[in-house]
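User: Okay, second chain of the day. Same drill as before: sequence in, C-alpha cells out.
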Amino acid sequence: MPRYRALFRTLEFTPLFLTGAAHTAAQTVAGLGLATLVFRATGSPLLSALALFGPSLAQLVGATTLLSAADRLPPRAALTGIALFFALGTAVLAVPGLPTWAVFAVLLAEGLAASLGAGVRHGLLNEILAREDFLLGRSVTNMAAGACQIAGFAAGGLLIALLSPRGTVLVGAGCYLAAALLARFGLGARPPRAAGRASVAETWRTNRRLWSSPARRRCYLALWVPNGLVVGCESLFVPYDPGRAGLLFACAALGMLAGDTAVGRFVPARLRARIRFPLQALLAAPFLVFVLDPPLPLSLFAVALAAVGYAASLLHQERLTALVPEELGGHALGLHSSGMVALQGVSAALAGTLAEYTSAGTGMALLALVSLAVTCALARAETRAEGSTSATPTAARPSPRRDRRRTA
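Assistant: Same drill. C-alpha cells below.
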C-alpha cells in the first residue's frame, strides 16, 4: 500500500506541496472576501458568482495562447513570478472605490496567469515523482487543497466579520506573497522540460495533438464538464445563504478531503477504473435536494457527501497521464486544469443566470441534473469503446506503449 511518508522524502516535493497550499489558501480567502464585496455592492447573484469563479473563464484563453510555455520555462522562476503577480493583483482588488469593471479586468489578467501556473505546477509534480506515485502525489496535494479550503473559508468568514471584506482580500494577497517566497527559496533550479520557443501556434499544435486521441478526449470531457457544473452549484452558496456560505464551502472542502484520502490511499489499482464514473455521479446527485430548500443540517450533509465525488478526478487524471508522452506532461495537465476551471467559470455564469430567473436552490438542482446526464453519457461511451477494443483480435492490437506513442 502506498505511503505518504515516502512522498515527503522525495526531493522538492515538500516545497512544491507548501507552495500549492499557500496558493489555495490565498485564493480561498481572497475569493470569499471579493465575492462578498461584489454582492454587497451590486446585489447580483450573477456578479457575485463570477467574482468567485469568473477568473476561470480567462483560463480558457490562456489554454489556447500561453500553455506551450508550461514546459518551456524554468519551473522555479515561473512559479515565483506568477505568485508575485497574484499578490499584486489581489492587493489592487482591495483598493476602495474600485469600479466593478476594473475588478473583473484584474480577475481576467489573473485567470490568464493561472492557466500557465497550473501547467507549470502539475508538470513539475509529474517530473519530481515517479509515474506510479503520481496518483498518490495528486491525492496529497488535493487533500492539502481541501484542508486549506476548509481553513480558508472558515478564516475568511471570520475575517469578514472581524475586519471587513476588503481586509479579507488583503490577507489573501499576503498569502500569495508567502507562496512566492516558498517557491523561490524552496524549489531547486531546474531547466525547462521541453526545448523550443513558446508560441500561440505551438500551443495550438500541441492542443490538437492531445485532442486527437478519442481516449484522451473522453478523459478531458470527464475532467471538465461534470465537475464544472457542480462547481456552478457551489458558486450559488453566497446568494443561497449569505450568512452561512463559508460554512457550506467548508463542508464541501471537508468532503473533498475525505474522498481524496480514501481514493489516493486505500482504493487498489484493480478497482479504480470501475469506480471512476459512479464516484463522479455521487458528485452531483446530492445537490438535487436543494430544489426543496432543505434545512441547514441537511444542506451541509448533502454538500459534504457530494464533494466526496471530486475524488473521481484523481482517477481520470491517472488515466490521462498514462495516455500522454512525458515531455508533454505539463502541457497536458495544464490543458486539463485550464479547461476544468474554464468550465467552472461558464457554469458559474450559467448558475448565476438561472438564479436570477428562478432561485439559488433551483439553479443548483438543475445544474446537478445536467451533470448527472453528462456523466452517464461518458460512462456509456467508455463502455462501448472498451467493448470494441476487447473484440479486436489480440494479435492485431498494438502494445499499449507503442499505441500511446503513435496516437500522441
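Residues 28 and 245 are 12 Å apart (CA to CA).

User: Thanks, on to the next one.
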